[in-house]
Amino acid sequence: xxxxxxxxxxxxxxxxxxxxxxxxxPFVLPAEQVTVERIPSRKGASRSRLIDVLEPSPDRVTAxxxxxxxxxxxxxxxxxxxxxxxxxxxILAETLRRVARIDFPVEQxxxxxxxxxxxxxxxxxxxxxxxxxxxxxxxxxxxxTDECPISSPMIGEALRKLNEMAKDRxxxxxxxxxxxxxxxxxxxxxxxETDKPIxxxxxxxxxxxxxxxxxxxxxxxxxxxxxxxHGKSFFQVNRFLLPRLAELVLGDAQGDTAWDLYxxxxxxxxxxxxxxxxxxxxxxxxxxVRDLKGNAQAAGVDVRAIEEPTDGFLARAEKAPDFVVADPxxxxxxxxxxxxxxxxxxxxxxxxxxxxxxxxxDLAELQSGYEIAEVTLVDLFPQTFHMETIVxxxxxxxx
Length: 399
Description:
The protein is of the alpha/beta class and about 400 residues long. It folds into 3 domains: about 1-60, CATH 2.40.50.140; about 120-220, CATH 2.40.50.1070; about 235-395, Rossmann fold (3-Layer(aba) Sandwich), CATH 3.40.50.150. Helix content is about 25%, strand content about 30%. It has 9 helices and 21 strands. Strands 7-20-21-19-18-15-16-17 form an 8-stranded mixed sheet, with helices on both faces. The protein has a 6-stranded mixed sheet with strand order 1-5-6-4-3-2, with no helix packed on it. Strands 10-9-8-11-12 form a 5-stranded antiparallel sheet, covered by helices on one side.
């Protein structure tokens, strides 16, 4: 059947309507006329497969990746990068209106972007039957490839080498997935999934074949600070925007006390400690807390690191700091953390969110005590529907 695409929604699909029914189609653009085929869908959501683009958008481009539309990693390679940024801003503003009833003008959403290719410093590869690649869109089927245009050069070289190694008789066929992390000089690899224990000789082989391999933490420099990052510790994946991210979050903030919630290895904690007299970093991951303490010591700054879930820390807190940074996982802050923050009422709250829907949910609750001062879309994930959003909130006059 033929459809006219109305708009893109978060997740990468285009939305269209036929006889009152909403249909979602991937790899399309707004205003395009397309031919599609219905596919089996979950209850409540009608989906289709793109067959042909009858009237293409002027923003449509040729994808760089040979497995685009089959690999589940990218959704936007058919869209010019300028259009990707504009569409993400519109999706963010629409999500704030729909979920939180916050009418924040699209033109007031700031955008921070950089090189849209070769940016990923951390990826997870899957292995099966002597092939290496990614999972297919919406399934666990392997899509083999020996190139990934969004990955950094060092990871690209490692992918090509892994494809060669996977065909060698020494390769453990029970290895299912391997994560790579790099600073373009060092390469860290971590086994994510395997059906059996892996012999040490395989890791020796990896070390010999993959230049720059390090057995322990990887050392990453951001704005002059050195961060040791172990395999189980979270770290942002865009090598180009990492320095700018910290600058955008902190702005010109300074004062007496600050909290870094969901702090990871200290990307924000270390620069905060140079601006505030007392900094407390809260992180539930043991590996990240260990890295954070070592990183703070190496930087010569004083950070009080607490290994505890943020909800528990906030529930026990009695006095608010001057400044709070919160960089929660995809699930967002949640009701408990939001309630505690509304009770404590820190003067300034900065949220770093990776999901606009959970961000909007949290902002809807925070409106009772805070006003939005600034919204910045940081495009940490070009060619995909994912977006990072920095929201700066100031304590409002309402009780």
